[in-house]
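Before drawing any conclusions, I looked closely at one protein, both as residues and as discrete backbone shape codes, quoted below without any editing:
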Amino acid sequence: DLRYLSEEGYPFPTAPPVDPFAKIKVDDCGKTKGCFRYGKPGCNAETCDYFLSYRMIGADVEFELSADTDGWVAVGFSSDKKMGGDDVMACVHDDNGRVRIQHFYNVGQWAKEIQRNPARDEEGVFENNRVTCRFKRPVNVPRDETIVDLHLSWYYLFAWGPAIQGSITRHDIDSPPASERVVSIYKYEDIFMPSAAYQTFSSPFCLLLIVALTFYLLMGTP
């Protein structure tokens, strides 16, 4: 095939094979890594609305993120569970089909990209309308307002949304989920958070209300 020959008639060297993205293992959640799952009960890294895992590897923390989106998926490290003044790592699907790991700093409700990016060993993939990625970043970093030390405990903010020409836009839901309490990278838990569609009767208040209404109906009105 002449398409594979140079002008001199010699074949072009073939590109080295690209290692496929290793599937995220959820069986390790709560054992050798910590996980957060948001979505339908029983969901995994391929079916949750949002999934995150973390584990210590030497002096680094390895993160795995996945979300049901064709744009971006991110985790923010916060001192107060609110947007503003947060260190954010995002995996962004660009127009060329690549998934890039970027570093942001939340200024109020606006995410500002920071050129200093602590991520390494980055890999990502866009498949089945999901953005999935894996990267490492150091536990300890030189003092910097935009990069937190992960040996300290932080609230984790979970967000995902569309991208336009490789740039992130507003997240998909008005109030993105966050960890209920601060997270220690040294403690591996498997935490499930039901999405809005599955929260209807999950809270103690709702259950108490149901009991009260049932009692009222059974007793009748005076």
Summary: The domain at 34-219 is CATH 2.60.40 (Immunoglobulin-like). The first strand starts at residue 34 and ends at 39. The radius of gyration is 22 Å.
